[in-house]
Specification:
- The complex is a heterodimer of chains A (about 425) and B (about 475).
- Chain A is of the alpha+beta class and about 425 residues long.
- Chain A has a single domain, classed as Orthogonal Bundle (Cytochrome p450), CATH 1.10.630.
- In chain A, about 45% of the residues lie in helices and about 10% in strands.
- Chain A contains 18 helices and 12 strands.
- In chain A, a hairpin with a 2-residue loop joins strand 6 and strand 7.
- In chain A, helix 9 packs antiparallel against helix 13.
- The mean pLDDT of chain A is about 90.
- In chain B, strands 3-2-1-7-21-20 form a 6-stranded mixed sheet, with helices on one face.
- In chain B, helix 2 runs parallel beside helix 7.
- In chain B, strand 22 and strand 23 form a beta hairpin.
- Chain B has 3 domains: about 190 residues, FAD/NAD(P)-binding domain (3-Layer(bba) Sandwich), CATH 3.50.50.60; about 120 residues, FAD/NAD(P)-binding domain (3-Layer(bba) Sandwich); about 90 residues, FAD/NAD-linked reductase, C-terminal dimerisation domain (Enolase-like, domain 1), CATH 3.30.390.30.
- The chains are: A alpha+beta (about 425), B alpha/beta (about 475).
- The interface between A and B is medium-sized, with 22 and 20 residues.
């Protein structure tokens, strides 16, 4: 199998519903490459090693001229790369500044304190199902829930959702390395979405400066931390990153979760009876159906020898997290969904310095959402299997998930 | 015991006795049951408590953020063991296979595991050590007593010795807003463990946080009032300090006295054992029924020229206990070597310090990432042209990569560049360890002895 055809298989929409056989084929060659295109890494230990390898850069400016061709987003002086696309020390500084109002050590209670509010939002969304016998889980739940949460957290007005939804979706699509698309056209569309989102956020941040709330944008704009504050451009990039990441990934985690539960009715039943199962269950879900399937944006600062291959400086490297999560060299019976799996150090949130910033929030959102859905939907069942998937091969998940049910149990039943 | 039949009998109905009921002892017991040992299991511990975790004692417990009696180690499984707590082992009869206890009873065994660990080295002048206000910190009671005294806001705390424990105590004192003086015999804190280059950062950290750090001095005497309360400390530079509390952090002493005269190869440096955790007797012959794990063990490590390492590391205690337990109830062909790569962590002055490998073997250090001046960096240690250790200050997430370099005996300095490489990371500098023959305060790793072969071998530990 040549790489060109493997690359095409990964991006081929026909494989979106079940990409795992393609990954199994990929793993026969842990680091796959031909003359052009990226080095595709698909085995657990190699991915894990590279995620902790300080020779591997996340900064697109380190890509060689050949690899730059594949790059979707261009440099924009008004909206420089966010910390996701930066290396230390800039990455570390910006991530610490962003963490200051979000988590430990400065704000250790933020996520915990949102628990009640998350449950309330979930409860209200599920109450809406009362007079219905079928829903589209994506449009009726998985999307509105995390969007409402990220809006509350950041201090973005919920009613602006129709405006930023389009930008967020465009930016998420720009991650998708689809070779069939017109690269120039995509760059143009992406660019436009970035600047519109930037303008929108700039306005919003101005407002938060005038009238600060207890939200993250207000805190980031004020910058009371020991390390000072971000520049205006850094602030905009960070806000854009959090907004997009906060609502393009959790939607898939929750939808993939419900899909997996409906395909495994015994597990659904166990979760209904034992809500504590939600914690290991979500970890297994992050292994089994990770919302971010691959990281297509890394490049070595020096030649890296790995698995018998030398990845040269400046080459483009793809790390296929979802494949590493199914590597039989690391996980026993990797294709089995086992919510009680031990030693589950999955790559669902990545690993190393860029491991998912919002992980504690995403975990809690998915735990609470799946527990409540399992508890309140009476006899839920899939109306389409497989469901219709979104185009994106990187941020993979169903576009719709039609679910039928016999009724709704009470909130406190 | 020999042959499969007797091994089966041992696994089914043998008697295993574990002396030392702390981290290593507990994990060994759990591993034995996990591997299917169904015989009788006895754990003997001189402290009255069930096994508890020690790292929080010099951190959260001192700060009053965690209750000392809520540091019990989590149990991984049911043990079905007999616990003899609060009674020390006082002797061993290797021929009769019996452990003697302080209450006069004897406990027979088929296999013995020794995990007696270490204790804090006391202040060398017994009368001064008796003064009210003089502390060590090793046990739960130590932490409770010290925490109580710190809560009463002493005028000044003197920490004697700036190893990891002493530095963490000083850090906790500053966090509590207490005046603290640290007296260190060496040129900087942590110098024995990390070398002079990195130790200078530790010194900067202490001073930046308001510690009155005095290096190159010794405490020559502690002076009390007529009521026996500590009042003053005398230093080798002729100065005196008015202090109410002195914490003696001069490292640890191995708990091997109870084995004196037993014929086992036990002494002040620990109990020598082979890589399979079997203890040596004093003739240098390996025993087949006595195993050792944790801080008290001293075993040869293939990665470090087969030097006998004794490691006071939390992770080492767990890994070695599991290996010892496995080997104790398996045939020799199925035994495993203890090849854990040394690793430890410390948290002090808001900085998370982690290390892998054996830094004190290093002759050079390269600041591969970050910057010493910013107190955020990764230092890589080289020994005879290969990577032997690494330390991170607030850069924990890179450490695993360097552990890989140690395990594969990668060349030093590592070729190529990395993210966050600064001008100071362009070439290695001498690591600046003190002469090991001079006493320093509590180095974490002690090295001694060579095997006849000091060839390096390359190996890759089994991945999980």
């Amino acid at each position: 199998m040549t790489q060109g055809s493997m690359l095409r298989k990964i991006t081929d929409y026909a494989n979106r519903a079940d990409p795992y056989p393609v990954y199994a084929e990929l793993r026969k060659t842990p680091v796959l490459h031909d003359e052009e295109g990226p080095y595709i890494v698909s085995t657990y230990w190699e991915i894990h090693g590279l995620l902790h390898d300080p020779r591997l850069s996340s900064d697109a400016r380190n890509l060689g001229p050949q690899a730059v061709e594949n790059l979707a987003d261009e440099e924009d002086p008004a909206l420089p790369p966010a910390f996701l696309r930066l290396d230390p020390p800039e990455h570390d500084r910006l991530r610490r500044l962003a963490m200051t109002p979000f988590g430990p050590p400065h704000t250790p209670r933020r996520i915990h304190a949102m628990r009640g509010e998350l449950s309330r939002i979930i409860g209200e969304l599920v109450d809406e199902f009362a007079d219905r016998d079928r829903i589209d889980l994506v449009d009726d739940f998985s999307y509105p829930f995390p969007v409402t949460v990220i809006c509350r957290l950041l201090g973005v007005p919920r009613e602006d959702e129709p405006r930023f939804h389009h930008w967020a979706e465009t930016l998420a699509a720009s991650l998708d390395p689809d070779p069939d698309e017109d690269a120039a056209e995509r760059r143009r569309v992406t660019q436009q979405a970035r600047s519109e989102l930037g303008l929108y956020l700039a306005e919003l941040i101005e407002e938060r400066r005038r009238a600060p709330g207890d939200d993250m944008l207000s805190a980031l704009a004020a910058g009371h931390g020991p390390e000072g504050q971000m520049t205006q451009a850094e602030l905009l990039s960070t806000a854009a990153l959090l907004l997009v990441a906060g609502h393009e990934t959790t939607v898939n985690l929750i939808t993939n979760g419900m899909l997996t539960l409906l395909r495994n009715p015994d597990v659904l039943k166990q979760l209904r009876e034992r809500p504590h199962l939600a914690v290991p269950l979500v970890e297994e879900l992050l292994r089994y159906e990770p919302p971010v399937q691959l990281l297509p944006q890394r490049t070595p600062l020096a030649d890296i020898d790995i698995a018998g291959v030398t990845i040269p400086k400046g080459a483009s490297v793809w790390l296929v997290l979802a494949s590493g999560n199914r590597d039989p060299q690391r996980f026993m019976e990797p294709d089995r969904f086992d919510p009680r799996r031990k030693d589950n150090q999955h790559l669902g949130f990545g690993s190393g310095i860029h491991s998912c910033f919002g992980a504690p929030l995403a975990r809690l959102e998915a735990q609470l959402a799946l527990t409540e859905l399992a508890r309140r939907l009476d006899n839920p069942r899939l109306l389409a299997d497989p469901p219709e998937y979104r185009r994106n091969a990187v941020l993979r998940g169903p576009r719709h998930l039609p679910v039928a049910f016999d009724g709704l149990r009470g909130r406190d039943a | 015991m020999s042959g499969n039949g007797s091994l089966e009998a041992l696994r089914r109905s043998g008697r295993i006795v574990i002396v030392g009921a702390s981290l290593a002892g507990l994990r060994a017991a759990e591993a034995l049951r996990e591997e299917g040992f169904t015989g009788s299991l006895t754990l003997i511990g001189d402290e009255p408590h069930e096994p508890y975790d020690r790292p929080p004692l010099s951190k959260q417990v001192l700060l009053g953020k965690a209750d000392a009696d809520r540091t019990a180690l989590p149990r991984h499984r049911e043990l079905d063991a007999e616990w003899r707590l609060g009674v020390a082992a006082t002797g061993l009869d290797m021929t009769a296979r019996r452990v003697r206890l302080a209450d006069g009873t004897e406990v027979p065994y088929d296999r013995l595991m020794i995990t007696t660990g270490v204790r804090a080295r006391p202040w060398p002048h017994p009368l001064e050590a008796e003064l009210d206000g003089v502390f060590v910190l090793r046990t739960r009671q130590d932490a409770v007593a010290l925490n109580r005294r710190l809560t009463a806001v002493p005028r000044r705390v003197l920490v004697i010795g700036a190893g990891f424990t002493g530095s963490e105590i000083a850090s906790a004192c500053r966090e509590l807003g207490l005046e603290v003086t640290v007296a260190e015999r060496g040129p900087a804190p942590l110098v024995g463990a990390l070398g002079g280059v990195v130790a200078q950062v530790a010194a900067d950290l202490q001073r930046a946080h308001g510690v009155d750090l005095r290096c190159g001095v010794m405490v020559t005497g502690l002076e009390g009032d007529s009521a026996g309360r500590l009042r003053r400390a005398h230093l080798s530079d002729g100065t005196t300090l008015d202090v109410d509390v002195a914490v003696v952090s001069l490292g640890a002493t191995r708990n091997t006295e109870w084995l004196a005269g037993s014929g086992l190869g036990a002494g002040p440096r620990g109990i020598a054992c082979d890589a399979g955790c079997r203890a040596f007797d004093i003739r240098g012959i390996v025993t087949d029924d006595i195993f050792v794990a944790g801080d008290v063990a001293r075993s040869p490590h293939p990665l470090f020229n087969y030097q006998f390492l004794s490691l006071e590391h939390w992770g080492n205690a767990v890994a070695q206990a599991e290996t010892a337990a496995h080997n104790m109830i398996n045939a020799s062909a199925d035994r495993r070597p203890h090849v854990w790569v040394p690793a430890f962590w410390s948290s002090q002055f808001g900085v998370s310090i982690k290390s892998v490998g054996v830094p004190s073997l290093g002759d050079e250090v390269l600041i591969a990432q970050g910057s010493l001046a910013e107190h955020r960096f990764t230092g890589v240690y080289g020994y005879q042209g290969r990577v032997i250790a690494a330390v991170t200050f607030d850069q924990t997430k890179w450490l695993e990569h360097y552990q890989g370099l140690i395990e594969t005996a990668a060349p030093f300095p590592p070729p190529g560049t990395t993210v966050d490489r600064r001008a100071e990371g362009l070439r290695p500098v001498p690591a600046d360890f003190p002469d090991p023959s001079l006493p320093t305060h509590g180095p974490t790793v002690t090295l001694s002895g060579y095997s006849p072969t000091d060839r390096r071998i390359t190996f890759t530990p089994a991945r999980a």
